[in-house]
Design brief:
The structure holds two protein chains of two kinds. Chain A has nine helices and twelve strands. Chain A has one domain: Rossmann fold, CATH 3.40.50.300. In chain A, 37% of the residues lie in helices and 26% in strands. Chain A is of the alpha/beta class. In chain A, α3 crosses α4, α3 packs parallel to α5 and α5 runs parallel beside α6. In chain A, the strands form three sheets. A six-stranded mixed beta sheet of chain A has the order 8-9-10-3-11-12, with helices on both faces. A four-stranded antiparallel beta sheet of chain A has the order 2-1-4-5, covered by helices on one side. The radius of gyration of chain A is 18 Å and the shape is globular. By secondary structure, chain B is mainly α. Chain B has a single domain, classed as MetI-like fold (Orthogonal Bundle). The model of chain B has no long low-confidence stretch (mean pLDDT 93). The chains are: A alpha/beta, B mainly alpha. The interface between A and B is medium-sized, with 31 and 21 residues. The structure holds adenosine-5'-diphosphate (ADP) and magnesium ion. Adenosine-5'-diphosphate binds next to β2 and α1 of chain A.
């Protein structure tokens, strides 16, 4: 089966700062992959390269078999309208929600469908309501985002991305800005998506989520994948001391079993 | 003690109202041309093409730092020599104040656009919007709300500056007032009436902008709540 995302020898630099140093990663269709790693290890940059919010400096990315960009003299070149189209196929959810504050919840979820995909208002409305129902927020459709809690905002942001019918969803620390009591509702929504067979790549510090939901966990260190594998392997019996230290740091002061 | 007598002034009020109408025409057209031009210059200034950006910066700085009367005289007296066109006081006035106010509007637009969180651009980009679409659908609707107070202030400034066009013999309110004052020998009454007319004009204008601001604030997040 063709992987939903296939990354080969991906490199990304910001000026002199070499952030991604040759990433190889496959995400199978319907798989949920969690990226772990300490701050600054390049997790966000890797995610942002998958939907080309950042253009890689080197390497190849295929989405469901389609090579993104065109090869010219050994280098990949990207056309802006190709990338815009690609971004409709790869949805992204951000730490800070970034809902459009001048639009209602419903309009937020309709906007991309109408303006980018060219769907009719009526069709976009139906789809938007269906996606809002999927994240359990149908009744908030007429509200403005400023009236929602952080957890609700984030679920609307998820619905907004889903409404584009993406083939892959990217989540970048989507619970990090939330009050602790609101984290659960967003993780539950993500878990439900994973169970419905959505292909997802998630950056998160929720080790429990990684353990219970992910099909694969990748640990990033200094712009390279240090370890990857099934969650119970990487999280329970890591091969490197680096990953062990990272996990210990995340599970200090756990309640006794 | 001056013996107030408004009879002559009010008797010729139509003459002043014609001037008011002429003032409003220049003011209105300067806004109609100046606002889109201001947006274009602001986008040019923010563009990643260095030449364009520098050119737009220069235009903004030039028209903000030279006296409006000099600009008006330049367009009225100098430009016709350069490109041999027939320049009327009306055209010269509209031209001057459209361009002059566009320089100020450009800075207001730039400030407004820059005040919008980068996350808004990101979110729009992530659902496949191009930059122009994002600007039109996401950024400007939010930025414009925040810009209204600055716009209003600048427009009032513009309205006051239009009194300069009487110097090129355009029959604006100020010009008509001068005429009427020398005709009736009642400058005190004439200029008092004219001051009141400007006062109410600006009052109505600023009330309208406040109304607009409230209306826009009601939909989502605005400057007011
Ligand atoms: N747009 C950018 N410009 C310059 N440096 C950046 C940019 N984005 C990220 N970086 C740098 O790249 C490194 C990796 O960042 P990031 O991918 O955000 O890490 P993580 O998400 O794992 O915390 C950091 O050193 C960060 O400062
Ligand atoms: Mg990050």
């Amino acid at each position: 089966m063709t992987p939903a995302v296939e990354i080969r020898d991906l490199h990304k630099s910001f000026g002199d700062l070499h952030v991604l140093k040759g990433i190889d990663l496959d995400v199978q269709q319907g798989e949920a992959v969690v990226l772990l790693g300490s701050s600054g290890s390049g997790k966000s940059t890797l995610l942002r390269c998958i939907n080309f919010m950042e253009e890689p400096n080197d390497g190849r990315i295929r989405i469901n078999g389609d090579l993104i960009g065109a090869e010219r003299g050994g280098k990949m070149v990207y056309r802006e309208n190709e990338l815009c189209k690609l971004r409709t196929r790869v949805g992204m959810v951000f730490q800070h929600f970034n809902l459009f504050p001048h639009m209602t919840v419903l309009e937020n979820v309709m906007e991309g469908q109408v303006v980018v995909l060219g769907r009719s208002k009526a069709e976009a409305r139906d789809k938007a309501l269906a996606q809002l129902a999927r994240v359990g927020l149908e009744e908030k459709a007429p509200e403005y985002p400023s009236r929602l809690s952080g957890g609700q905002k984030q679920r609307v942001a998820i619905a907004r991305a889903l409404a584009m019918d993406p083939e892959v969803m990217l989540f970048d620390e989507v619970t990090s800005a939330l009050d602790p009591e609101l984290v659960g509702e967003v993780l539950k929504t993500m878990r439900q998506l994973a169970e419905e067979g959505m292909t997802m790549v998630c950056v998160t510090h929720e080790i429990g989520f990684a353990y219970h939901v992910a099909n694969k966990v990748c640990f990033l260190q200094d712009g390279q994948i240090l370890e990857q594998g099934e969650p119970h392997k990487v999280l329970k019996t890591p091969e490197t001391s680096r990953v062990r230290d990272f996990l210990d740091g995340h599970s200090l002061f756990k309640l006794p079993d | 003690m001056h013996n107030w007598d408004f009879a002559a002034t009010l008797g010729d009020i139509d003459f002043l109202l014609l001037g008011l109408w002429n003032t409003l025409q220049v003011f209105g057209l300067a806004l109609v041309f100046g606002i889109p031009l201001g947006l274009a210059i602001a986008l040019g200034r923010m563009s990643r093409i260095p030449v364009l950006s520098q050119l737009c910066s220069f235009v903004i700085e030039f028209f903000r730092t030279t006296p409006p009367l000099v600009q008006l005289f330049w367009f009225f007296f100098a430009l016709p020599i350069l490109i041999s066109v027939q320049m009327t006081p009306f055209v010269a006035s509209v031209l001057t104040f459209s361009i002059q106010s566009s320089a100020f509007f450009a800075e207001i637009f730039r400030g407004g656009i820059n005040s919008i969180d980068k996350g808004q651009w990101e979110a729009a980009k992530a659902i496949g919007m191009t930059r122009p679409v994002c600007l039109r659908r996401i950024i400007l609707p939010q930025a414009v709300k925040r810009m209204i107070p600055a716009f209003a202030e600048r427009s009032i400034e513009l309205l006051k500056t239009t009194t300069l066009i009487s110097t090129v013999s355009y029959a604006d309110l100020m010009f008509q007032a001068n005429e009427l004052a020398s005709k009736t020998f009642r400058p005190l009454e004439v200029y008092t009436v004219v001051a009141v007319m400007y006062f109410f004009l600006i009052l109505v204008f600023s009330q309208l902008t406040i109304l607009l601001e409230h209306r826009l604030a009601r939909s989502g997040e605005g400057t007011l709540r």
